[in-house]
Specification:
By secondary structure, this protein is mainly α. The protein is 56% helix and 6% strand.
Length: 571
């Protein structure tokens, strides 16, 4: 490596030193591991997590994610979820197989279901550190990039889910890392590797691949690559296409179905603003990134250099891929969710770290002594890692009464706040939600082989109680016998559905009402909707037990306090 790789990249006395800093690397990995794994199994799986986990159980039984097993059908009311053979078609299968691996090793627990994705989160942090080190030879830049990623609350919340988010983040960074190697050296091993990485991203999350690919292809133009590099990239895409043909066939109806997006031009612009606010609030302060990116692109266009440097190529890719993802999701996604841009967090963190390091080095070389620059550097790191500084709530720009689905923050959300403190509470405290209470109720009242009917949360029950027949409002038309236990988080569930009324005929039910924490969506990772601690607000929960189960009815406590003591606990 040449000396220019380390120039102005380290806030230290030994800016030109190129030895790999193992203690710092291991410390960053330890931070990421603690945040990803601590208390990973304490929260009950919520509906979307349980969908992944139940289908992973079917992988272990059938060899593929099968929607139907016995009487239990995985279905959340979304068309094209499975085909005539009950093969799951709504999502790529990669997440189900790595979840199945965790279940095979650790058993049928929430920790086991989430383990593989948390590991992907830690590996993403490690890969980002190694990627930055390889191309900059800067311990400060590598450590800062990885530390900002490891302490990103949005990133951590999503990696702690039994869902594709952590796997997609890792796959996306691998795609970019291998793409850089291909551009720098269009050897056969790299175009094959890039083709494999693209295929892996497709089988992880084909939506992310579709919004990343335009940014990658556009970067070829700005990087001023030669004919060999373009041919190598074309070979990679051709190889990836061949590898994803089975997936295209399996998911064709899903991929070609009319989406919920397709917004008007003004609606797409509004959604783009939403994603910019997401970038600002959770992983890249837009007040820094947009001006810095604009200046960089402007100088690049004005430059007469025939060859763009390796580091500049990475900057180009980071800017274009994150922009491509935000624009693509603004056009296609029905509602703004952080999960849509989680795969690009690592690139955004690298951009942010470069801005911070460059700013502090400018202070060191032009204005301040070394110790002052280091102090400012440390303060900036703490602010960026532990707070959402320079948050730009969307209500500052649009009338949210007209677009309530686009709201990112409550109207009284502070300008600068910390969610890291909330994450620390989550890792160290118990959490009780509707799903955990419902599971306790079913474990208490339902025996093996019996039927349970619920209006929401059927999939968590299906994961934890594989010995039961579980039905929801979406699947109760298939229910042949009256349910033994009914759990409802709303109102009289029998009055909500004609099929439920039909199966109730001939039996009487005894009902019990209990108040439960108001967390209908449980452990949802969206920061704007996530509960770091058990909320104090409660909603009524109705439990119906078939009257011919008198022995179980008599054993129930007769007071609300007794029921809460019996059914309020986390898992």
């Amino acid at each position: 490596m040449t000396d220019d790789k380390t120039e102005h990249c380290d806030i230290s006395d030994e800016a030109g030193k190129t030895c790999f800093n193992w203690p710092i690397f291991l410390l960053v990995i330890a931070v990421a591991s603690a945040l990803c794994f601590w208390g990973l199994g304490t929260r009950t799986l919520w509906e979307d997590e349980a969908e992944t986990a139940v289908l992973a159980q079917r992988v272990l039984s059938y060899g593929f994610p099968r929607a139907l097993s016995g009487n239990n059908l995985v279905y959340q009311g979304v068309s094209n979820s499975y085909d005539k053979a009950y093969r799951w078609t709504f999502h790529p299968w990669g997440q189900f197989y790595i979840t199945a691996a965790g279940l095979a090793v650790f058993g049928n627990t929430a920790f086991a279901a989430r383990f593989s994705f948390a590991l992907c989160g830690v590996l993403t942090v490690a890969l980002l550190y190694l990627f930055v080190w390889r191309h900059w030879r800067s311990s400060s830049l590598a450590a800062l990039s990885a530390l900002l990623l490891a302490t990103s609350v949005g990133f951590i919340l999503h990696c702690r889910q039994c869902r594709y988010y952590g796997l997609s983040a890792l796959a996306s960074l691998i795609v970019v890392a291998v793409f850089i190697e291909l551009i720098n050296n269009p050897h056969r091993r790299w175009w094959i590797g890039f083709g494999l990485a693209l295929a892996a991203q497709f089988y992880t999350d084909f939506g992310t691949l579709m919004v990343m690919l335009p940014g990658l292809l556009l970067s070829l133009l700005l990087m001023r690559v030669g004919k060999k590099e373009i041919i190598a990239a074309a070979k990679s895409i051709a190889l990836a296409f061949l590898l994803i043909i089975p997936g295209l066939v399996l998911h064709w109806q899903r991929l070609t179905a009319a989406g919920e997006g397709g917004h008007s031009f003004s609606g797409a612009l509004l959604l783009l603003l939403v994603y910019i606010c997401y970038f600002d609030a959770w992983f890249i302060p837009v007040v820094f990134a947009i001006p810095a990116g604009a200046v960089f692109i402007w100088h690049l266009f004005k430059s007469r250099k025939e060859v763009v440097s390796e580091q500049d190529r990475i900057i180009i890719i980071c800017i274009l891929v994150t922009a491509s993802a935000a624009i693509g999701m603004a056009v296609a996604a029905p509602s703004p969710y952080l999960r849509y841009v989680v795969p690009q967090i690592s690139l955004a963190k690298l951009l942010l770290a470069m801005i911070v390091v460059g700013f502090c080095n400018m202070l060191r070389t032009r204005f301040l002594p070394l110790w002052s620059a280091r102090l400012i550097f440390a303060v900036v790191i703490i602010m960026l890692a532990l707070t959402n500084i320079f948050s730009l709530p969307l209500q500052n720009f649009v009338d949210l009464d007209k677009y309530p689905q686009f709201a990112l923050h409550p109207s009284d959300d502070p300008f600068a706040k910390t969610e890291f403190a909330g994450l620390a509470c989550e890792l160290t405290q118990d959490f009780v939600c509707c799903d955990s209470v419902a599971l306790n109720i079913v474990n208490d009242l339902a025996k093996a082989g019996e039927t349970v009917f619920t209006d929401y949360g059927d999939l968590p029950l299906m994961f934890y109680r594989t010995d039961l027949n579980i039905y929801s409002l979406y699947t109760c038309r298939y229910m042949l016998t009256p349910p033994d236990v009914v759990v409802s988080s709303d109102k009289d569930i029998f009055s909500l559905n004609a099929d439920a009324m039909r199966v109730r005929q001939g039996y009487n039910y005894n009902s019990v009402i209990i108040s439960v924490p108001d967390t209908v969506f449980g452990n949802v990772p969206e920061p704007r909707a996530h509960f770091f601690v058990t909320p104090s607000a409660k909603i009524p929960f109705r439990i119906y037990l078939r009257s011919d189960h008198q022995d179980r009815i008599r054993k129930l406590p007769q007071t609300a306090e007794g029921l809460e003591a019996r059914w309020y606990r986390s898992h």
